[in-house]
Amino acid sequence: MQARLTSGQMANKILKQSGSLRQDPWGEVRIHQIMLQDKRRTNCYKKAIENNLKTDSRVIDLGCGTGVLSFFAAVKGCRKVYAVDRSGIIDDAREAARKNNLQGRIEFIKADIRKFKPPAKTDMLIHDQLGVFIWNEDIVAKVARIRDNYLKKSAVIIPAKIEIYFVPVCYKSELERSVAFWSKKQYGIDFSNIGRKLFIQGHRQAVHPSVIFLKDTKLFLGKEKLVHRIDLTEDSRIPLKLAASFRLRKNAILSGVCIFLNIHFDRNTRLSTRPSRNNSHWGQLFLPCVEPEKILRDSVLDFTLFPDKKPEKWKFTFLIR
């Protein structure tokens, strides 16, 4: 008979697991639920894998997580999948493969994907290394290492190309909304002294990029522009600088620039993160002006971004003329 845990023992067990999650954030189930619930994203991977897989294909799934992409390849009928992840979630993926009778074609390898070496060159690389801040999971360097050392020349990379778009917007950030709240009397009482603390406590929101989920393009102040193409079949480093100029099409408050992507999984399978009522989990990025500025129609905005793997190190400038 299995011994029952007391409430105290159960609490200690939960606390221990919570501590391990702080060391292993990708072991948190909620993160993987968000990605699996993103059906647009997951079905694009599935379609591209099925379109390009052959029965004798050897596949690397880089950062396999729950193993769902490896499962797509195994079900389609490839020769072998090397599913690689350093997180403890890989143990759950291995168990899911066993429960679904898919373990035969998948080899789960718990390892740092920066050090992983497959036993032979492979025909396909599947990866989910595109972070919500584009480069924050070191997508270019990780893919380049596998591409240059462990893929056949004819190998397929999924996804291979990502287009980056900029557009100026009039978007009221959470910080701005909070400032507006504290600037007004609440229940007849002036709390503006408390509101001033927002500029200290909310400085990260004021100067760093954040993820937003716009449902349409009504807040766009100009025409979006393609500023960069990431080509994972060739690139080995992130760009040093991205810049674009925009003619603003109406009188408004310029609050920042929105970034969205076109992700090419293969030649025929594409997903856009352009504002939509059916947003992917990537959403869009918002790069705020520290001080939102009134602009006139036909003004020109020169915007420059200096990206980094760490979004808190991004630098960006706004010049209106």
How would you summarize this macromolecular structure in one to three sentences?
The protein has 321 residues and is an alpha/beta fold.
Main attributes of the structure:
321 residues; Rossmann fold; Hnrnp arginine n-methyltransferase1; six-stranded antiparallel beta sheet; 14 strands
Identify low-pLDDT runs.
Answer: none
The CATH homologous superfamily name of the largest domain equals Hnrnp arginine n-methyltransferase1
Q: Average pLDDT across residues?
A: 90
- The end-to-end distance, rounded to whole angstroms, is 77 Å
CATH topology of the largest domain: Hnrnp arginine n-methyltransferase1
Q: Give the CA-based shape.
A: elongated
In this structure, how is the largest beta sheet organized? 6 strands, antiparallel
Write the layout of secondary structure elements.
Blueprint: H1 7-23, H2 29-37, H3 39-52, E1 58-62, H4 68-76, E2 80-85, H5 89-99, E3 106-110, E4 122-127, H6 139-150, E5 151-158, E6 161-169, H7 174-183, H8 192-195, H9 198-201, H10 203-207, E7 210-212, E8 225-231, E9 242-247, E10 252-266, E11 269-272, E12 284-295, E13 300-306, E14 315-320
Parallel strand pairs: 1-2, 1-4, 2-3, 4-5
Antiparallel strand pairs: 6-8, 6-10, 7-12, 9-13, 10-11, 10-12, 13-14
Helix pairs in contact: 3-4
Description of the molecule:
There is one protein chain. Helix content is 30%, strand content 31%. The strands form three sheets. Strands 6, 7, 8, 10, 11 and 12 form a six-stranded antiparallel sheet that branches. A five-stranded parallel sheet has the order 3-2-1-4-5, with helices on both faces. It has helices at 7-23, 29-37, 39-52, 68-76, 89-99, 139-150, 174-183, 192-195, 198-201, 203-207, and strands at 58-62, 80-85, 106-110, 122-127, 151-158, 161-169, 210-212, 225-231, 242-247, 252-266, 269-272, 284-295, 300-306, 315-320. The protein has two domains: 25-158, Rossmann fold (3-Layer(aba) Sandwich); 162-320, Distorted Sandwich (Hnrnp arginine n-methyltransferase1). It is built from ten helices and 14 strands.
